[in-house]
Amino acid sequence: MIGKVKLFKKLESVLAKSKADQTEIVFIGTQSGLTRFANSYIHQNVHENNNRIFIRSVIGNKVGVATANSLVTSELLKTLDASFEIAKQQPENLNFAGLAKPAKYKVMNTFDDDTASYSPKARATKVKSIISLSDEKNFTVAGAFSTSSGEIAVLNSNDLRAYQPFTGTSTNMVVMSDTSSGYASDTSRKVTDLDFETLAKIAVDKCYRSQNPISVEPGDYEVILEPSAIAEAMEWLNYVSFGSKGFLQNMSLLSGKIGKKITSDIISIYDNALDEKANAFPFDFEGTPKKRVNIIDKGVAKSCVYDLNAALKGKTKSTGHAITPDMSAMGASGFNLFMKQGTAKRANMIQNVKRGILVTRFHYINGLIDPRNAVLTGMTRDGTFLIENGEIKSGIKNMRFTDSMTRAFGTTKAISKERERKDSWWSAVGCLTVPAVHLGSFRFSGKTEF
Amino acid sequence: MKNKLKEIILYLKQKQVDYADARYVNCETEAITVANSSVDAFVRNSNVGVGIRVLFKGAWGFASTADLTTGSLKKTANLALQIARASATTIKSPAKLAEQKVYVDYYKTKIKKDPFQISTDDKIDLLIRACDVLRQDKKIKHTEASMGFFKTNKLFVSSDGAEIEQDIYESGAGCNAVAFDGKEAQKRSYPNSLGRVMATRGYEFIEEMNILDNVERVREEAIELLSAEDCPDTHTDIIIGAPQLALQIHESCGHPIELDRVLGTEISLAGGSFMTVENLNKLKYGSEIVNINTDATIPGALGTYGYDDEGVKAQRKPIIKNGIHVGYLTSRETAPVVNKKSNGTMRADGWNRLPIIRMATVNLEPGDWEFDDLIADTKDGIYFDLNKSWSIDDKRLNFQFAVEAAWEIKNGKKGKMYKNALYTGITPEFWNSCDAICNKNHWQVWGIPNCGKGEPMQTARVGHGCAPSRFRNVKVGVSK
After folding, report:
1. B184 has a pLDDT exceeding 60
2. Chain A, nearest residue to B64 by Cα
3. Where are the extended beta strands (E) located within A198-341?
4. Which domains are present in chain A?
5. Which residues are within 8 A (CB) of B169 and not within 5 positions of it... i.e. 6 or more apart?
6. How many CB pairs under 8 A join A and B?
7. For residues A337 and A366, is the Cβ–Cβ distance under 8 A?
8. Which chain A residues contact residue B44 at CB under 8 A?
9. DSSP states of B250-303 as a string?
10. DSSP symbol at B94
11. Which residues of chain A are under the pLDDT cut of 50?
12. Measured between alpha carbons, how far is A92 from B101 in angstroms, rounded to an integer?
């Protein structure tokens, strides 16, 4: 960790040397450790100490971006020059909205000392506790446990200054027998929030109960989609539909449907980086304060998320969802997605299923088939069960689903009161917070052999 | 830098490590995206650092840093050792590395035109001209054209005595158009979908793509898709075009032959493999005409290099021979499980990532057919072109691919276009139904620049050589 004062001093000295009309520097520094285990031992155990510096120079409407990972002043100045030279060589970009203006940010605590100082030895100790619980049933276990700390800063020539330190931690585990597997995961800003014993017991229990799975035929089933499955589906919906690019290209499930009912009225999906129960963060990578965005509210399509350039195209305001400047061509993205909780007690949800399937988790979802109709395909894995007369009857072999999620969400019967945090690729600045969902209809299009 | 790395390795040897290696990687990239004839993004990136891998008492540790001072490198080496000690608390049997010839060498990608020396104006001009043609119809609502270039300098030093430097160049480009009629959106791309086609070549690769000769067709096909019929839901014979077949090979052969996956070390994220060690040399993976190899030595192919990130020389080896599974992609640690030496496929996504087994190029060898003869020989079928979506289960058995466009084949002739087409199957059943592969005139390596694997996530640039091929009685349908 460099710290706010020292970091700004360094970056402001670079900013002061810019010859461009407008200049922006985004800094992401991380120290991260990840312990990976499989076959019930640690096989990969890594640490990374890295910085990423993105410099955006603007000459009129011409924009150039150069990035580096060295904090040596001469390298930073080289990067500044490179961004200026790139901007000079550009044609005018009429879609450029300008850099963000100074703003006030919500004060929040996103840093935890215990997580930042967590050692490889301490991670190994937690992994050993997971292995022990798996060993008790003669199962094997694979998974990962990461801890990280870092700091993100955005500063620009409009005198915008944004800084936030952060920590993060995640774990996931797959417990396996010869014929079955079970999964559990969690993420937080604080390592003490992760309850390894409970997670391992869940994964062991799912593995135990799904042994010797039977095969069921593809078709239309009632389903309970557990939080991991909902999170994986939402990740893809976010990628193809909740961001500005898909929406503005008419390729989003929201395109042409704003104000229209697209799912059951008990489905609400929103992005809220200011909710500190999840991995909150106060600003985006342009320095715009985060705003809550209702994406689907009581079944009605409301809005995608925006960055500054997309907001210009969409004739609206940025919602604080810019990604890093090197990936800006992808448009804005949700980072802190929530599905609103319901009223059902999760433990009781299967009682209302006469014949259906409980899905712990999906694998290899793809949402590019037909994004406007929110069609996803993917496989179940690590704990798929047949429910009959309100009880788990047995584990079943994994199934492929291919379905429109807006159609399926239109059949929602219940949503759990309890929600879980789920990790994603953007974990430094957010995560997913999701309940279990009972759908009246979900289409399985195929099956596999295990 | 080489001396600094050698000092670190010497220091670790004094700490009694079983093995250590240090990799310096300096990767420069350039990416240009033009959207609707305006430059959407122009980014140059520099990413430099050192990764140190330590095997101590049979357990692994890895640490990496962007701070290249001697003090930082020593601290990083100590951290790698500390991490290995932590790993050692759980190991069941110590990791051992297969013996390997030690190389002191230099490798460089052969290119004709350094893409970083081509003028920015020329690059932007080509992309804007492509978008301009793609937009010449009101039904086209969005166009995109992009280029990307990588220049990677790698230095590898190991406690075995290896000292290898490599300079690898990678170049690619692509474009697409989205047609929209108020109700439906359809996309067509060139030369492949889902981004750029890449190769270990220079700017000459971009010039040889003939992008401007193809954009008019791409535009018209995107518009035609809006009024095309949905693909029928049936079982039929299918011919898969080479770019889509490349992804089919990638997902249903490339990944399940990674021996780390097979041995369970990727199971929590990417999954395992149905191609188990017990069935090596027994599994009838495909029909007798199916021959697949791994090859990191094809000049110009994405996935070609001099040495992997364990210092093992690039190789070509058989994977599927006359339909039988005979080989894996291996590392120094995993190869002894199948009584082999490493075939050199350990690669890391930069200095800050641990090397893991990655595809180089995994290729379906050419058959005998001319493409026109194959169409003429097909009474009822569908031709599938350019991937739209991909999904496969965690043992790589049940797959489903959708494509941008498909065409009916009726009585040996290509007929009407279908939209929203997909096909699905079980891997060995599918490859055993392969009864025709086009010849070398239609064979090309298709670079795939975004293969994801590992935790933390790593992206690899890999390739697949193949030619259009026919598969009998495959389940096809519409993706709605």
Report:
1. yes
2. A48
3. 219-225, 269-271, 293-297, 300-301, 337-339
4. 4-137+148-170 (3.30.2290.10), 213-447 (no CATH)
5. B109, B111, B114, B115, B149, B150, B151, B152, B200, B201, B202
6. 273
7. no
8. 65-67, 82-83, 86
9. IIIIITTTBHHHHTTTTTTTT---SS-GGGTTT-B-S-TT--EEEES--TT-TT
10. -
11. none
12. 55
Sort out which chain A residues have CB atoms less than 8 A from B64's CB and list them. Answer: 46-50
Q: Which amino acid belongs to residue B296? A: A
Percent pLDDT > 70 in chain B is 100
End-to-end C-alpha distance for chain A, whole angstroms? 46
Q: Rounded to an integer, what distance in angstroms lies between the CA atom of residue B348 and that of residue B335?
A: 18
CA-to-CA separations, B204 to A77, B113, B447, in angstroms, rounded: 32, 6, 15
Shortest Cα distance, chain A CAs vs residue B441, angstroms:
31
The H or E element that residue A5 is part of is helix A4-15
pLDDT band at B480 (very low <50, low <70, confident <90, very high): low
Contact A251 B266 (CB under 8 A): no
Helix (H) or strand (E) holding B247: helix B242-249
SS3 state of residue A364: strand
Cα–Cα distances (Å) from B83 to A50, A222, B66, B438, B479, in that order, read 18, 47, 18, 51, 47
Q: What is the mean pLDDT of chain B?
A: 96
ipTM of predicted complex: 0.94
The DSSP letter of residue A249 is T
A402 vs B68, B178, B400: nearest CB: B400
Q: Do the chains contact at A377 and B39, CB–CB below 8 Å? A: no
Of B33, B146, B388, the CB nearest to A368: B388
- 3-state percent helix, strand, coil for chain B, nearest multiple of 5: 25, 40, 35
CATH of domain B2-227: 3.30.2290.10
Query: Which structure tokens are listed for B178?
Result: 């989205």
> Whats the size of chain B, residue-wise?
480
pLDDT at B221: 98
Q: Which amino acid is at A243?
A: G
Could you read off the pLDDT of B307-358 as tens digits, one per residue?
999 999 999 999 999 999 999 999 999 999 999 999 999 999 999 999 999 9
CB A134 within 8 A of CB A204: yes
Q: Where does the pLDDT of residue B479 fall: very low under 50, low under 70, confident under 90, or very high at 90 and above?
A: low
Structure tokens at B390: 């991909």
Q: Quote the pLDDT of residue A382.
A: 97
Phi-psi region at B209: left, alpha or beta (left = phi > 0; alpha = psi -120 to 50): alpha
Q: Which pLDDT belongs to residue A90?
A: 87
Residues 6+ apart with CB under 8 A from B159: B9, B12, B13, B17, B19, B20, B21
Give the up-direction half-sphere exposure of residue A329: CA atoms within 13 A in the CB hemisphere. 23
Q: Name A34's bridge partners.
A: A46, A146
Classified as helix, coil or strand, B365 is: coil
Strands (E), A75-180: 140-156, 161-176
Residue A302 near residue A295 (C-beta atoms within 8 A):
yes
Reduced to 3 states (helix: H, G, I; strand: E, B; else coil), residue A130 is helix
Mutation site for A-interface testing, chosen from B26, B38, B74, B87 by largest number of A Cβ within 10 Å: B87
Q: Which of B30, B27, B52 is nearest to B39 (CA)?
A: B30
Structure tokens at B4: 């600094």
State pLDDT tens for residues B97-138.
999 999 999 999 999 999 999 999 999 999 999 999 999 999
pLDDT value of position A329: 83
Query: Which of A24, A32, A44, A90 is best to mutate for the B interface (most B CBs within 10 A)?
Result: A44
**Which residues are CB-neighbours of A113 under 8 A, at least 6 positions away?**
none
Q: How far apart are CA B123 and CA B31, in angstroms?
A: 10
Q: In chain B, what are the domain boundaries?
A: 2-227, 230-478
What pLDDT does A262 receive? 98
